[in-house]
Amino acid sequence: MKQISENLFKPDYEQYSLVNVSNAILSHFGCPAHYPEYPFGLEKPGLMENVNKVILFLIDAMGMNSLNKILIKNPIFSESDILQASSVFPTTTSSSLASILTGVTPVEHGILGYTLYLKEFGTLVNMIELSSPTVGKLGANLSSKKILLSETIFEKLSKAGVKGCVLTSKNIRGSGFSNLINAGASVKSYQSFGDLFEKLKEMLDENGKLFGFVYWGLLDSIGHKLGVNSQAFERELHWLLRMIKEEISKNLKSNTLVLIIGDHGQIFTPWQNEIWWSWKDEIASFFDLPPGGEMRMMHIYTRFPKEVVEYIKEKYPSEAFAITKHQAIEMELFGKSPKKENLERIGDVILIARKDYSFYFKLTGREESLKSKHGSLSLDELLVPIILIRG
Questions:
Q1: Local structure of 283: helix, strand or coil
Q2: Are the C-beta atoms of 37 and 17 separated by less than 8 Å?
Q3: Of the candidates 5, 85, 2, 105, which has an alpha carbon nearest to the alpha carbon of residue 353?
Q4: Chain centre distance of CA 67
Q5: pLDDT at residue 143 above 60?
Q6: pTM given for the model
Q7: Quick check: bond before 338 cis, omega within 30?
Q8: Residue 142 has pLDDT above 60, yes or no
Q9: How far is residue 75's CA from residue 79's CA, in Å, rounded to a whole number?
Q10: 165-169, 176-180, 283-287, 324-328: which has the minimum mean pLDDT?
Q11: Among positive and negative, which fits the CA dihedral 369, 371, 375, 377?
């Protein structure tokens, strides 16, 4: 991967990103690919031969670094069964999942961070909840095609006669974001581990060609609350991987491939390195709107982008890397072939946190300190594993 600044790297959209994984699946089932395919055949010859069922089991916040810590203590999976991919930018769930489930980059599908300014609604929008801090839920009149500006992988695969299935937590099934990224799929929910694996078995027993997507989100929550280096985080990932291997491997048919994958990693961010801004701070005098994005990646909306970049370089040289929207697009950090509508969602200045720093803007007063975060372009956040299980 290309280094863009000290210890910050650009996602590898050319061949080894989550986008390329999706395009490999599309191509395998005979659908047009928008990007080069992830080279499964080169990395693992014969992996996808005679496969008519592909299951993508996504563990939110499973970064390569976190997996390596588990495998050093207990080699649940062989090194030969683990590949690597890069996430997308920003390294956050909304952008990553939208890329995985559309097969295109953030600048094309339009989910460019956790919170974004949507000009058509005139407000900052939480892209997971599809709500605004000022107007609340965007409501039933919201057109999904105004938010997610690309077909889902399920919609694309259905044209080739491939059934799409989703298995997700009961707590998020039917949420605004889930409805966007799962369009075209048959969606079921689970309440527990046992329920998840029973429903996964039903998915594996389906007849015909199938692409299944399974989502597990609890690990990410544990990392935010207790830290990516906590015993709770390591135990959750350890036992989750053991259960997946035991439950999936024993009855997997030869025509089925399971890919266990992460969407991003996390990095421990001590409270001493949290930088809190509000409208009272000097830098806020440049802002036209509250910043969007993440705590480790901000979209700053301003009419004075050059001045903001210079201010950040002067005041926070060790804490942040700042570039203008034009520079970010030119560097293709968000991907290629930007759609005009999405350019308006990108901040005029992009702030990318360095090391273990993070940035907060006091907007609602309900912002809380998190022990681990993501969104930036460190290797801990950017590199994710792909664990292969073939029947």
A1: helix
A2: no
A3: 5
A4: 17
A5: no
A6: 0.96
A7: no
A8: no
A9: 8
A10: 176-180
A11: positive
Torsion of CA 291, 295, 298, 302, to 10 degrees: 30
Percent of the chain with pLDDT over 70: 97
- Give the pLDDT confidence score for residue 141 in this predicted structure: 47
Indicate the Cα dihedral angle 211, 27, 87, 321, nearest 10°. -150
Identify the pLDDT of residue 139: 58
* pLDDT value of residue 391: 85
Are 105 and 111 in contact by the 8 Å Cβ rule? The answer is no
Residue 89 phi, psi (nearest 5): -115, 130
Share of the chain above pLDDT 90, in %: 85
Phi, psi dihedrals of residue 383, rounded to the nearest 5°: -90, 130
Q: Quick check: 1 pLDDT over 70?
A: yes
| Alpha carbons 149 and 28: distance in angstroms, whole number | 24
Q: Which residue in the block uniquely carries the two structure tokens 């670094």?
A: 65
Q: Which residues pair with 277 in a beta bridge?
A: 361
Give the Å distances, CA to CA, from 293 to 13, 54, 155, 165, 367. 21, 32, 28, 30, 14
- List, for residues 39-61, the tens digit of each pLDDT value: 999 999 999 999 999 999 999 99
Q: How far apart are CA 359 and CA 319, in angstroms?
A: 9
Number of residues that make up the chain: 391
Higher-confidence residue of 147 and 379: namely 379
Say which amino acid occupies 252: L
Give the number of other CB atoms < 10 A from CB of residue 73.
9
Contacts of 260 (CB under 8 A, 6+ apart): 57, 59, 62, 241, 244, 385, 386, 387, 389
State both tokens at 198. Answer: 């029973």
